[in-house]
Every structure is written in structure tokens, then in C-alpha cells.
Write a structure and sequence with these properties.
Chain lengths: 116, 116
DNA sequence: TAGTTCGATATTTCCGGAAATATGGAAAAA
DNA sequence: TTTTTCCATATTTCCGGAAATATCGAACTA
């Protein structure tokens, strides 16, 4: 991932409502959530939420698809993967010695990270 | 890492100069770099860089220590670790099925991630 | 009806000039 | 020699203008 897109993604996530929405969409994979449902869930006006969704979409982190009258948004996990890869490269690539303890302490799904 | 601090960190990194500086400091671990050297390297006025360093420090991503008349800044790898953990938790914790392919494709130091 | 776009306002962020603060070296004074 | 004074360097703080962002009512669209 190039720096420019990484900055877009970081900025998109650096806002309370957007981070909440994004987390909800990741958790809702692969089904997705309608924009209106998100607006209700987080008590945000529809137009404000629309603007936030637009920022997330512009960063490539989510994608909307019309489903009848409503529009279902889904998280783009591939983009998340690229973003995390970019950030890890900054640390590990820039300073390999820091990589070991860094990855060791990441507690997420260690058994899947090491498919023996 | 709590959400508030994660947002601070994401916002701190979502800016070209700050991301550049942060990357340089990660690469310069554990020695660190003086503020003035960073200003020269990235051709940014001292006061502007000082403001950026302040944002990074407030987010806990870097830390400055006086060394004589200059101030040496260092990256806080522990905080980076927390931030990456937070982001991974959003994906893996929120949707464990997405975790496997996500971590599999992270190319950083795979041999260290899986210390057989 | 569900969402988006437009337009206006409030707030925040970015930037750099000017001045203030901190440190230490070197010369001058006691 | 010790202390003070002065000066140069390093960085931060203060300030305001310009640009970007956040928010929401109202109109528009699918």
C-alpha cells in the first residue's frame, strides 16, 4: 500500500463515529449493514452518517451496494489487510529487531497465525 | 488500548510529515534522532516540526529526552504494539473468521511470527 | 421511504514568523 | 580558580491566517 492511501485510511479511522461504524461493519461481515440501520444504531443523522460512509468508502475501507431501497455497506477486509501490512512494514521493515517482540505480543488468534 | 487513545494515534499518523518522522524514528531505534536533525532531514521549519512531534508525543507514539542542548526523540514501540493489537482486535475479535487470511498475508517477519 | 447532495456554520488542523526558554561554551571579571 | 556575563545553538510557545473537516437542515433522487 502506498503512503498516500495509508494516510487516507488512517484519517478515515481517526474519528469516533467512523471507527464505530467500521468496527460494526467488520463484525457484520460478510452480511453487511444498511446505512439506515447504522444511523439508528449510533444515533447519527442520516446525512451526517452518509458523509462519514463516504470518507470510509473513499479510503477503500468500506463499499456500499444498493439492495432494493436501502444500501448495504460492507467492510473491505482486503484493504484492512493492506493497511496492517503497511503499518507492520514501518516497524518490522524499518527495524527488524523490533518485530519479534511486537508480533509475539499481538494476542489475536495466535493459533491461526501459526498454522502448524 | 482504549478507543480514545487509538483515535489519537491514528490521527497522529494520518499526516505526511508526521508519518515520515515516525517512520524515521522507528528505523532509528533504539538510538533516536534529535529534533533538529529531523527538521533538516525533512526540510520542515523547526517550529512546525515541534508541533508535529508534540502531536505524536501526546498520542504516546514518541517520547523526547533532553540530551545536552538538543532533544532526542525515540519511537515508543510499546504503543505501536498496542495500536496494532487494537486494530487486529477490531478485525479478528470482531470477526474471527477474517483473521486467518488476514494474518497469513501479512508478510512481515513470518519466521519470527511462528517461532517453531 | 431510504439515501445522497447541497449549502451554511462551527470547529479543528496545518503552517510558519516572531518571540520566549533552555543549555552550554568561551571570554571577562573577581 | 571561581564566577559571571555574553553569545550561539536548539527547541518550544505564542499567534493568526488559510485550508480542511464535522455537522445538520433542506432539497433532491432512486
Amino acid at each position: 500500500m502506498e503512503k498516500k492511501r495509508a494516510i487516507l485510511a488512517l484519517a478515515a479511522l481517526a474519528q469516533t463515529t467512523r471507527l464505530d461504524v467500521f468496527r460494526a461493519l467488520v463484525a457484520a461481515e460478510p452480511t453487511g449493514v444498511a446505512a439506515g440501520d447504522l444511523a439508528r444504531r449510533f444515533a447519527v443523522p442520516a446525512n451526517t452518517l452518509s458523509a462519514h460512509l463516504n470518507v470510509l468508502a473513499h479510503a477503500g475501507l468500506v463499499k456500499g451496494e444498493r439492495k432494493g431501497r436501502s444500501i448495504t455497506y460492507r467492510a473491505e477486509l482486503a484493504q484492512v489487510r493492506l493497511l496492517l501490512g503497511f503499518m507492520l512494514k514501518d516497524c518490522c521493515g524499518g527495524n527488524p529487531d523490533a518485530c519479534g517482540p511486537l508480533l509475539d505480543q499481538i494476542v489475536c488468534c495466535p493459533e491461526k497465525a501459526c498454522p502448524s
